[in-house]
Design goal:
This protein folds into two domains: about 240 residues, Rossmann fold, CATH 3.40.50; about 50 residues. Helix content is about 50%, strand content about 10%. It has twelve helices and six strands. β2, α2 and β3 form a beta-alpha-beta unit. The longest helix has 21 residues. The radius of gyration is 20 Å and the shape is globular.
């Protein structure tokens, strides 16, 4: 059986810790499921694995893109599917780890329909997304019909792009471009989800991690990226929590205390949204936080593999 394990949970909940313990005990190779860790040089703000971890464990879909490039869920699904097949062909097991819940959900269930668009339509959409931020686009669409954006969060660039395609296209949608792992009978999917039983501890861990990132040089990292790639808040990589706020600090729009507060609060809000995804996945095994009982988890994995 081609087993695929997926370890999900909110930011700062211990996914990396568990993934490396699993990789020590089983034939796992780690596939990144954090959108912004796909970018090169976004290290501190994404809590990317250390050089030592990269050396000692097999990782995939990290450091794939330059910081001035764009990426979307369709790219992620196709890239991940190729990596999964490659890992299985070498008789290893994929362990997908991350917190980009929507990307993993689409990977499992398939992509929403795409619309028949002319090249000029795609150019227009690219122009709109490049010139205006998500908030401006949503406000503009709200003037037309607020119901269209009622289920789109401010950072959900993928759904916003699909809405623009639907608004611009006059044709019926095409069939799905990617069917999803659940629709491929050769895979046995096992979803592990870190269940937050004490949110106060998670909030405190996020605060501590934010201060650690600042102390480790997040500001210098963003300054170098901005200088090297001429990055602005319009670039996708700079929409990551930690990076967009640091850009504001570098541009003298906020002070250092405000920077720390903004990153902390934004990360806590992200964690809250990630937790709500629990009800959308077909979870096979819950991992209680903050205990993170590895013995119980490893027994479950062993049971699946027998």
């Amino acid at each position: 059986m081609n087993n695929i394990f997926i370890l999900l949970g909110p930011t700062a909940s211990g996914k990396s810790y568990l993934s490396y313990r699993l990789a020590n005990d089983f034939d796992f190779e780690i596939i990144n499921a954090d959108l912004f860790s796909i970018y090169k040089y976004l290290n501190i703000g994404t809590a990317k694995p250390s050089k030592e971890k990269f050396k000692n464990y097999q990782h995939h879909l990290f450091d794939k893109l330059e910081p001035n490039e764009s990426y979307n869920v369709s790219n992620y699904c196709l890239d991940t599917h190729k990596v999964i097949n490659n890992i299985l062909q070498r008789e290893k097991m994929p362990l997908i780890v991350g917190g980009s819940m929507m990307y993993v959900f689409q990977l499992l269930n398939g992509l929403t329909s795409s619309y028949n668009l002319l090249n000029s339509d795609y150019d227009l959409i690219k122009y709109i997304l490049g010139k205006y931020d998500n908030k401006d686009i949503i406000n503009s669409i709200n003037n037309l019909d607020s119901r269209l954006t009622s289920k789109i969060e401010i950072n959900d660039s993928y759904r916003l792009e699909k809405l623009l395609e639907r608004l611009i296209s006059k044709e019926k949608p095409q069939e799905k471009k990617y069917n999803g792992l659940y629709n491929d009978n050769k895979f046995n999917i096992n979803i592990l989800f870190i269940n937050i039983e004490d949110r106060k501890i998670l909030k405190e861990n996020i605060r501590i991690r934010t201060e650690k990132m600042i102390n480790e040089g997040l500001v210098n990292e963003v300054q170098e990226l901005k200088k090297r790639y001429h990055l602005t808040e319009k670039h996708q990589s700079m929409k990551a929590i930690g990076y967009k706020e640091t850009l504001q600090y570098i541009n003298k729009k906020i002070c250092l205390d405000e920077l720390i507060t903004l990153i902390t609060v934004s990360t806590q809000q992200l964690a809250k949204r990630q937790i709500t995804w629990k009800n959308k996945f077909k979870i096979n095994h819950l991992i209680a936080y903050p205990e993170l009982d590895y013995v119980k988890l490893s027994k479950y994995v062993n049971q699946i593999l027998k």
